[in-house]
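Pipeline run #58 for the internal structure catalog. This entry was flagged by the ingest filter as a single-chain record with no existing model, so it goes straight to prediction. Upstream metadata was stripped on purpose; only the residue string is passed forward. Reviewer on rotation: M.T. Logging verbosity set to normal.
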Amino acid sequence: MFGYRVPAPDEAMLISGGRRGLGGAPFRVVTGHGKFVLPVFRKVRFLTLSMCEAEVTETCVTKQGISLHVRAVIAFKVGNDHESIINAGQRFLSDQEQMSVLTGRIFAGHLRAIIGSMTVEEIVTERQKLAAEVLDTSKVEMAKIGLIVDSLQIQSIDDGDTGYIAAMSAPHKAAIQRQAQIAQAQATQAAVEKEQEAARKQAEYARQTAIVKAEYSAEVDRAQAQAAQAGPLAQAHAQQEVLAAQTELAERQAKLRQQQLVAEVVRPAEAEAERVRILAAAEAQRMKIQAEAAASYDRVALDRMLIDQLPQIVKEAAGGLAGANVNVLNGADGLGEIAAGLVSQGLTILDSVRQGLGQDKDGQGGQGTRGDVNGLLQLHSGKERKSDDGPVDMD
C-alpha cells in the first residue's frame, strides 16, 4: 500500500517529521509492526538490530613491563529498548559501519588498562577473568552509545621475542615431559605386563584346552565302554528283575498255599477235634448221669428188697417169740405192743441197712445187703433165743 512501511525483524524503523518521539527524540521508533507514513511529510530510515563484530589487535604492557600482543573479538549489537535505539540512531544512523570501529577502539583502551594492572602469569592463566573485567569496565560506556556486548573472546596472547611466556612455561613443560616420560614408562611397563599376562593366559588356555581334550577323550572312552557293557548289563539287569519277579510270585504262591492248607486241613482238624471233645464231654456227662441213675436204682431196689424181707423178718422174730417163754401180763394189748415192737425193730434194722449201703461205694451192695440182713436176723434170733432162759416182761 502506498505510504505503508514495515521494518524487518532485525531492524528498527525511525520516522522523522511530524510529532517527536519518546523522551523528546527527533524521531519515532517502530519495531515489530508496520506504520503508515505520509510521503513528503515524513521521512523513514532503518537502523540494524542484528549482531555485529569488532576485532581488536593491541600491544599492551603488563604490570611487569612486558609487552604483549593481544588479539580479541567482540560481539555486540544495538539494544532492543527504545532508549538504546534512539542513542544508536543519533550516532550511527548515517554511517552504521562506525559502530564496529568505535567499539574496537573502546575495547582496545579498556584492554590496555586492564592488562596494565595484571601480570603475565595472571593474563595467561586467567583469560576469563581478563575478559570479564574488560566487559565490566566498558558496559557503561557502551550503553551510552546504545550498544550492548554479548561476548568478548581473547583470541591470542603473544610476547614476541622476549620469550617470557616460553620461559614461564618451561617448568611446566619439564614437568609435563617428566610426567610424559613417567607415563611412557608406565605405559611400557603396563604393555609388558599385559604381554606377560597375555602369555600366561595363552599358556593357561593351552593347559585348560589340553585338560579339556583329555577329559573329553576319557569321557568318550567311558561312554564307549559303557556302550559296550550296556548290552550285557541290561540283560543281567533284566534277568535280575525276572528272578525278583519269580521270587515274589513264589512267595505269593507259598502264602496262598499256606492259607489253603489252613482252610482245608487245619480248620477242619480243629473243628473235628472240637467235635470229638464235645462228644467226649457229652458221653462222660451221659455216663455220669447213668451211673447216678444206676446208683439211685440200686438204692430203690434195695429198699424194695428190704421192704419185701420185712415181713419175713417180723415173721422170724415172731417165730422166735413163739418158742420163747413169754408171759403177757396185759392180755391182747400186751400182744399188740409186742407186735408193734417187732415191726419197730424191723424198721430200725431197715434204716441201719440203708446207712450201711450209703457208705459202701464199691458195687458190693447186693451181697453185703443180704449178709447184713441175715446177720441182723441172726442177731435178733439170738436175742430171742436168749430170752428163752427166763420170762420177759413187756411193758
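catalog note: The CA atoms of residues 123 and 129 lie 8 Å apart.
catalog note: The chain has seven helices and eight strands.
status: ready for reviewer M.T.
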